[in-house]
């Protein structure tokens, strides 16, 4: 069972649903998850919200056979690092047959259930990736 | 002023189970079932898909197909009989995930298999009155059928979204009129807290489906003074292949008219998405000027009939999102055990 407080999930909800991160207009760097301050430009940076297309490629992956609590019904599943076209990398489930995933494979985003807090708690939704 | 469809989008999960596989588990004769139901296989959701994720995928496809500024959407209504929450709207999830929030009204609709078309009608009213600019009406379901029940052979997963507007230059199809026929007929229900619906068996046919579909359809044709021959295509709610084929015959529509929209043999019954999927599949291949007659049915019971004329704009947007035929192509077949796992029928601790 995933235990995450409702406000904690809700605060990052838009980022998870729509891949909204940030972009520094000064140095043209993109951030996901969103950063409020550009680590390179510091106080000179100009941060704006940025919605990623979600297109990217698989940097690396692993196949999970022994899952954490709450994910037992999904094994075997693929967990990978996706590098988005704009630059930032993120960890996500990749929805495909485990034997078909490859490093460098192009992926696109889909809207899926990320988990749920047991039978009574909230359902967490967000972005996962599928082969393009 | 015209009201109609500005865009549409469909979504079908990639997994299917064959009727043969379900019949094997319950000792039924698959050939008799397939011939009787005119359904060969049905769509199965992935383990992490539900009515909300399907509604979002359909809604995003609709918004992308016509490149709509989601901020123009003033209402989001999602029709489903499998909303993931008993209390908490699916439509807020859809609105947020399509970028339509926060200035809009939203609510969930429920009317068995016609909740989606009821949402279309509500949006037609809101755009006609000028209360909103665009309305997003969705029918999405991960339909439930109890293990071993007749429903299990057809209850499928899928969703369709329509963006409804009133600016003639934007419409890909004009909805000339709609007509509903509703009575209190308890042919299908699910009580609070129960996992699977119950139904009245054969009672769902004559006093349920056929009475409401034919009365809604005849009512609309009388109102518009049209005849079946005036339409190029027709779509009737498709809980199986037999019912819409029979309803079409009763009303005087031909097999050719219903053929493009009859997706149930390869898809199953997507409940709130069923008739709307048939309309989407028809729009996928209709030409400008073609007329489509559609009637949805929801147990409980009611029929919603629509008369639709396709405009020149359809050719501009059609290829910008996956067509129903593409969504039905290249499925991954699963056996009954995998299907049971995907549907959460197997409980782990």
Question: How is this structure best described in words?
Answer:
The complex is a heterodimer of chains A (132) and B (349). Chain A has 132 residues and is mainly β. Chain A has helices spanning 6-11, 13-18, and strands spanning 20-24, 29-31, 47-51, 56-64, 77-84, 89-94, 106-116, 123-131. Chain A has a 5-stranded antiparallel β-sheet with strand order 6-5-4-7-8. In chain A, a hairpin with a 4-residue loop joins strand 5 and strand 6. The mean pLDDT of chain A is 95. Chain B has a 9-stranded mixed β-sheet, sandwiched between helices. Chain B has a 3-stranded mixed β-sheet with strand order 3-2-14. A two-stranded antiparallel sheet of chain B has the order 9-10. The termini of chain B are far apart. The chains are: A mainly beta (132), B alpha/beta (349). At the A-B interface, helix 2, strand 7 and strand 8 of A face helix 3 and helix 4 of B. Chain A: This is Transcriptional regulator.
């Amino acid at each position: 069972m995933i235990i995450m407080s409702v406000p904690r999930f809700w605060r990052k909800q838009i980022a998870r649903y729509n891949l909204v991160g940030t972009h520094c207009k000064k140095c043209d760097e993109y951030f996901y998850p969103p950063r409020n301050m550009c680590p390179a430009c510091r106080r000179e940076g100009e941060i704006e919200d940025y919605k990623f297309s979600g297109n990217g490629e698989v940097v690396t992956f692993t196949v999970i056979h022994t899952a954490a609590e709450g994910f037992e019904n999904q094994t075997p599943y693929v967990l990978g690092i996706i590098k988005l076209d704009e630059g930032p990398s993120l960890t996500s489930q990749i929805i495909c047959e485990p034997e078909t995933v490859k490093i460098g494979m192009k992926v696109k985003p889909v809207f899926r259930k990320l988990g749920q807090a047991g039978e009574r708690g909230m359902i967490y939704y967000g972005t996962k990736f599928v082969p393009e | 002023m015209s009201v109609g469809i500005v865009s549409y989008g469909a979504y079908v999960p990639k997994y299917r189970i064959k009727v043969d596989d379900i019949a094997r588990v319950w000792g039924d004769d698959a050939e008799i079932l397939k011939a009787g139901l005119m359904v060969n296989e049905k769509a199965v959701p992935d383990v992490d898909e539900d009515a909300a994720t399907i509604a979002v995928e359909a809604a995003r496809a609709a918004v992308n197909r016509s490149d709509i500024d989601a901020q123009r959407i003033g209402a989001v209504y999602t029709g489903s009989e499998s909303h993931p929450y008993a209390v908490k709207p699916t439509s807020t999830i859809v609105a947020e995930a399509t970028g339509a929030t926060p200035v809009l009204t939203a609510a969930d609709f429920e009317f068995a298999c016609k909740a989606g078309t009821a949402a279309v009608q509500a949006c037609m009213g809101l755009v006609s009155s000028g209360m909103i600019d665009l309305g997003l009406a969705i029918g999405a379901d991960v339909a439930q059928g109890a293990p071993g029940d007749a429903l299990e052979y057809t209850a499928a997963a899928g969703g369709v979204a329509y963006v409804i507007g009133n600016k003639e230059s934007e419409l890909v199809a004009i909805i000339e009129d709609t007509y509903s026929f509703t009575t209190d007929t308890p042919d299908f229900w699910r009580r609070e807290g129960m996992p699977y619906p119950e139904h009245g068996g054969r009672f769902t046919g004559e006093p349920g489906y056929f009475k409401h579909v034919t009365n809604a359809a005849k009512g609309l044709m009388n109102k518009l003074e049209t005849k079946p021959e005036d339409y190029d295509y027709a779509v009737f709610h498709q809980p199986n292949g037999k019912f819409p084929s029979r309803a079409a015959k009763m009303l005087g529509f031909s097999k050719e008219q219903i053929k493009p929209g009859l997706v149930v043999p390869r898809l199953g019954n997507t409940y709130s998405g069923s008739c709307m999927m048939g309309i989407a599949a028809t729009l996928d291949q209709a030409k400008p000027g073609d007329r489509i007659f559609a009637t949805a049915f929801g147990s409980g019971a009611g029929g919603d009939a629509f008369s639709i004329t396709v405009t020149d704009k359809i050719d501009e947007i059609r290829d910008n999102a996956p067509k129903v035929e593409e969504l039905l192509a290249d499925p991954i077949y699963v056996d009954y055990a995998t299907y049971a796992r995907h549907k959460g029928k197997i409980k782990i601790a």
